[in-house]
Amino acid sequence: VRPGCALLSLLSSLLLLLLLRLLWCPTDAPARSRLLVDESEEDPQGTSPALRILRSPAPPIPPTTNSTYLDEKSLQLTEKCKNLQSDLNSLFNRTKRQKEDDYLQIITDIQNCPWKRQAEEYENFRAKLTSCCDAIQNFVVSQNNTPIGTNMSYEVESKRTIPIGENIFHMLPASQPFVEYPYKQCAVVGNGGILNNSLCGAEIDKFDFVFRCNIPPTNGNVSKDVGSKTNLVTINPSIIMLKYQNLKKKAEFLQDIATYGDAFLLLPAFSYRANTGPSLKVYHTLRESKARQKVLFFHPKYLKQLGLFWRTKGVDAYRLSTGLMIASVAVEMCENVKLYGFWPFSKTVENTPVSHHYYDNQLPKLGFHKMPKEYSHFLHLHMKGIIKLQFGKCET
Ligand SMILES: *[C@@H]1O[C@H](CO)[C@@H](O)[C@H](O)[C@H]1NC(C)=O
Ligand SMILES: *[C@@H]1O[C@H](CO)[C@@H](O)[C@H](O)[C@H]1NC(C)=O
Ligand SMILES: *[C@@H]1O[C@H](CO)[C@@H](O)[C@H](O)[C@H]1NC(C)=O
Ligand SMILES: *[C@@H]1O[C@H](CO)[C@@H](O)[C@H](O)[C@H]1NC(C)=O
Ligand SMILES: *[C@@H]1O[C@H](CO)[C@@H](O)[C@H](O)[C@H]1NC(C)=O
């Protein structure tokens, strides 16, 4: 082989690559070149249009200009984004197990569609939640909704009751304690590993009310990603039993929760009988040590009704995840809700592995919550303009 010939073929392959790149990766080019490619492309496999949309990433959002041509194009984009809704529905309705990759493909497409708050949709959804569950009155146990002498039924072990005597009654707030309700801007921060290196901290700290789940770390090197503001944080009694050894590690517990300032600590004290002891113990421990945080208990009836509400929407998990409970509360308590750190997948849309939490990679009990199924409801609410999901890194 002559060296000149090899060089020539190398050069021509490079040229071809360059041409292909220009055609397929118009990163800086106007959106229309991509759309033209999409339109002129014949479908060799004869797949249905819906499937094609599912497989091809949605085009980037065209810049706003007044050209009629681009107006037409953004109309087509809107069509594409509308179709995503039915793509999600059909994935969601499939009886066989949904694949993680199917979800990630849809999420990639959703990310490329513009998000717009839909005030009317928000109000409709809020009204439905209020008529089923009424978080404002019923979300936490209060003296107002639980008079002395009540036999309170447990959420899950519902044949069991606990009498509310003086001792428990005096632990309760007089009425619902969220005095500044409704809050304008609320963030619900999940603990997903997707938050690691997200740099979302500054954005999260700007919200009027920040909800968090299961006393996660917020100080030190994670605060740049998850923020440090907390107004309400849930505590799973199992963390009291396991991590803090039923508060034998009291000093460690008090030190850890000190980072939440005067936030509300919310416990599902009346979901299982086994939850009651550790939850009341948290209350007493905080009182004795004159801690600033206030303890609240999830109302078992509220959680039960919320579970039934989501069941009618197809969430047939044994019990809702804390994230779905709190997001539902937030929709009733707030005017805008944004979710961070909700990511039940093992990798990003770019295929890099994601740890289970932003602070560890401990996996949950299998089959307890139906996370991806719940997640499709979050995607649905996002697409309807009701709540906004932050999928990846924040703009800084
Ligand atoms: C489009 O036109 C309207 C009215 O003609 C004008 O107010 C607006 O600034 C224009 N937008 C852009 C992006 O040029
Ligand atoms: C999926 O199911 C819902 C009701 O559960 C129905 O309204 C919707 O049309 C179904 N979507 C598809 C694509 O079958
Ligand atoms: C609660 O249960 C106790 C004992 O089972 C019963 O005596 C009491 O009347 C009940 N109270 C109410 C309000 O139902
Ligand atoms: C953050 O700090 C924790 C504990 O100090 C450490 O285990 C972890 O590796 C650190 N993470 C990063 C990204 O620096
Ligand atoms: C977060 O990212 C850092 C790299 O920036 C890595 O060292 C750390 O292990 C990650 N944490 C988790 C829990 O995956």
TrEMBL record:
Stretches the record annotates as Disordered: 36-66
Bilayer disposition of the protein: Single-pass type II membrane protein
Signal peptide range in chain numbering: 1-29
CC annotations in GO: Golgi membrane
Pfam families cross-referenced by the UniProt entry: Glyco_transf_29
Keyword Transferase part of the UniProt annotation: yes
InterPro entries: Glyco_trans_29, Glycosyltr_29_Sialyltrsf, GT29-like_sf, Sialyl_trans
Highest taxon of source: Eukaryota
Subcellular location(s) of the protein: Golgi apparatus membrane
Molecular-function GO terms, alphabetical: alpha-N-acetylneuraminate alpha-2,8-sialyltransferase activity
GO BP terms, alphabetized: blastocyst hatching; carbohydrate biosynthetic process; ganglioside biosynthetic process; N-glycan processing; oligosaccharide metabolic process; protein O-linked glycosylation
Keyword terms of this UniProt record: Disulfide bond, Glycoprotein, Glycosyltransferase, Golgi apparatus, Membrane, Signal, Signal-anchor, Transferase, Transmembrane, Transmembrane helix
Family, as annotated: Belongs to the glycosyltransferase 29 family.
PANTHER family (UniProt xref): ALPHA-2,8-SIALYLTRANSFERASE, ALPHA-2,8-SIALYLTRANSFERASE 8F
Name assigned to this protein: ST8 alpha-N-acetyl-neuraminide alpha-2,8-sialyltransferase 6
